[in-house]
Amino acid sequence: MIEKNSPLKQGILSGLPIALGYFPIAIAFGALAGQAQLSWLEAVLMSALVFAGASQFVAVSLLLVGTGPLQIITTTFFLNMRHLIMSLALNDKMRGFPPAWKQGLSFFITDETFAFLTLGEGESNHQRPPVFMAGLMVTAYLGWVSGTLVGGVGAHIIPPQITTAMTVGLYGLFIGLLVPSAKKSRPFILVAVLSMVINWGLGHWIESGWAIVIATVLAAGVGVPLGGGWE
Fold first, then answer.
1. Among the four residues 21, 133, 187, 222, which has the most C-beta atoms within 10 Å?
2. What is the mean pLDDT of residues 52-61?
3. DSSP string of 32-76?
4. DSSP code, position 94
5. Which helix (H) or strand (E) holds 19?
């Protein structure tokens, strides 16, 4: 039984809003995977083993238009390059963690859990125990995988219009994570807007994966000298 106010319980409760946000988006992914002729089991395994929403959507979309395996692998590889940056940033939050904890938790890093752990309120500038992070990340993971199961099983009965509408929730989830911190700090607003503008501009010239990585690095570089204004 989980103790009241234990770090694990706090992590689970913190992860629930992310899991609830993932669920309808994962349903949309499961349904889209069905349209790409993937079975519900293949869709669930993809979510369980890959756990990278944007890359999964891209991969399935490429399958739908008949793209070859090498192109899909290359595209998703570059799209996921941002995870390298996020992992480096979260490594500071995991100082002192046993290597096994770091290795296990690294699989569950997503844009949303990263945003919560780096921008979240309360203990955002302090280390959280490993069990808190595990509760947060695994809860989000279960929300994604279970949503994929529902979407995969119901792929043939969910109208395409509803599938498309559900994907909008991903943007709402990002906004919900960003706005609370942006309200408290102008540098957050500056970095967020700058990264969006750079990503939009680069997106006209290079692959989206590289555009995201370069925009993140450049915007973060601008944010570093503004560090005194983060609080």
1. 133
2. 84
3. HHHHTT--HHHHHHHHHHT--HHHHHHHHHHHHTT--HHHHHHHH
4. G
5. helix 7-35
